Amino acid sequence: MSQSLLERYDHEGVATLTLSRPEAYNSLSLELMQALHAELDRIADDLSVRCVVLRGSGKGFCAGHDLKQMLGEGEEAYYRCTFETCSRLMQRVVSLPIPVIAQVHGVATAAGCQLVASADLAVAADTARFATPGVNIGLFCSTPMVALSRAVQPKHAMELLLTGELVSASRAAEIGLVNYCVSESELDGSVQAMAKKIASKSRKTLQIGKQAFYRQKELPLSEAYDYCSEVMVGNMLIDDAQEGIDAFIHKRKPEWRHN
């Protein structure tokens, strides 16, 4: 991990990853996307981590792709590499075996908005703003559209994509892009409280649930029930389910083995 691009801090089962390009509003250079993907891979294998918080340094969360870098390169092969790297990164956020919370302040635009939409949960400062403004510069936000269209209803997604306008944190909460918004002074504490609550659960159970959530969404109703019934059978057979049920019955705190 490059300390100049990405910082990691672990505490009580929560890994906080901070995008660290404040001079560029944490825009997603190719190097930053590669660093973030590599760190998520490491976290996937780190059984001590049960929740990830993704945040930005400086004045904003993330302003999307680094357009200065992209314009400077100006070659098809580089553009292809950039967008494929971004697509793999967003899919890694979804496929990570533990929940990811986006902590948003300032702006989250274009691929930055995509990162928020890709996260499992999101909390925003009430001063935060969101947009997919590519249409304003002749570059439609097609890859951000993938995550956005899965996070909010179609007409809300199309409004963001077609107008390119900034929307408030309260509007983002209304349409389901973020879970809720809080004052700037409460943002860090609210996110950490949510992350701590999640981190108190069984890592194996979190992994089972997150994977099943995204898989069943793509299935017809009857197939989704068949699939999730099998998931619950498998879940019942793991050590932590037996421990959790026994702890509930005997009114004690469970001791997770995370398997």
Automatic annotation (TrEMBL):
<comment type="function">
    <text>May play a role in fatty acid biosynthesis and insulin sensitivity.</text>
</comment>
<keyword id="KW-0443">Lipid metabolism</keyword>
<keyword id="KW-0809">Transit peptide</keyword>
<dbReference type="InterPro" id="IPR001753">
    <property type="entry name" value="Enoyl-CoA_hydra/iso"/>
</dbReference>
<dbReference type="GO" id="GO:0006631">
    <property type="term" value="P:fatty acid metabolic process"/>
</dbReference>
<keyword id="KW-0456">Lyase</keyword>
<protein>
    <recommendedName>
        <fullName>Enoyl-CoA hydratase domain-containing protein 3, mitochondrial</fullName>
    </recommendedName>
</protein>
<dbReference type="InterPro" id="IPR014748">
    <property type="entry name" value="Enoyl-CoA_hydra_C"/>
</dbReference>
<comment type="similarity">
    <text>Belongs to the enoyl-CoA hydratase/isomerase family.</text>
</comment>
<dbReference type="Pfam" id="PF00378">
    <property type="entry name" value="ECH_1"/>
</dbReference>
<dbReference type="GO" id="GO:0016836">
    <property type="term" value="F:hydro-lyase activity"/>
</dbReference>
<keyword id="KW-0276">Fatty acid metabolism</keyword>
<dbReference type="InterPro" id="IPR029045">
    <property type="entry name" value="ClpP/crotonase-like_dom_sf"/>
</dbReference>
<dbReference type="InterPro" id="IPR052377">
    <property type="entry name" value="Mitochondrial_ECH-domain"/>
</dbReference>
